[in-house]
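Subject: RND family efflux transporter MFP subunit

B.,
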Amino acid sequence: MRKPSGIFATAVVAAALLFPLRSAAADQAAAPALTVSLVTPAERDWPETVPASGWLKPWQEAIIASETSGLRITEIVADVGSVVKKGQTLVRLSQDSVRADLRKQEAAIATANATLAKAKANADRARQLQPSGALSDEKIVEYFADEQTATASLTSEKAALDSQKIKLDQTTVTAVDDGLITSRSAELGAVVSSGTELFRMVRQQRVEWQAEVSARYLSRISEGLSVDIDGPDGRRIQGKVRLVGPSVDTNTSRAIVYVALPQDVHPRTGLYVTGTIELRTTPALTVPETAIVFRDGINYVFAADEDKRVRRVRVETGRRNDGEVEIVSGIDKSARVVTSGGAFLSDNDLVKIAGEG
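Prediction pasted inline below.
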């Protein structure tokens, strides 16, 4: 009879020892996994945007070349990086031979004037004697022809003088517009020929963004739309659509949109940048970017229930702006979303909500 009593006593002691352990385990299971802050999705009006990328290029590039031939460069006034004004001297060419030809042409005009004066005097005398018959008709015609020839010769020599003056002016090469010199081919002492490129310049220092966009957006892009560009120095640049390219690349199915930048902004050309073109404003349901949990290529948020347990919800995201992201599907505006720390949570975790007892 004593043996069963001993077994019963042992069972009672074991139960007493196990009860605290089970209570501790239950308390631990019920402890919150994390203290979190909650937010409800915000309704905002955001512009619909088109992603784009492309090169910063000159709005218009001007080529400055020699207009005369066979002259030597005697002075170079501008260089790469020079900001110049329209009409400013860039290069000077040798003038010695041009000035000599100019003096020679001036002498030719003096000779032509003398020839004309003699021919005119003979013609005037022929006109006076013509009624008297003192001169033959043949001689009179000859004097009149000499006068016309001398007049034409003087006109020709004056035109040649004007040509020499133009050639003298062309020995000074000037800027065709305000702008920035981007390349220089002129070398001191080089003999140039007509059409020899000496400089290239960005007209008016204006730079534009030649942005490539998918062809499916072209019907919705028009002149004047606002453009937000990620500048090369880390700051954002606001531009406007100047022109939509008329053709689509058959290999990439992309078209070029020409974006004008503010005239007081002069980024370096040749840089590749990205940005967005704003189409129209539409409603957006947004949450903080910190609320998004990215796992296995899928976006999730954690939403809290009334019992302070969280559930993982798959969402589709859209536009992003100022630290917020658009939720296209997955939750509605009544959801209570964990703002941060979702990476440390699991589905059905109990959480403590900041600000609540």
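The two ends are 56 Å apart (CA to CA).

T.
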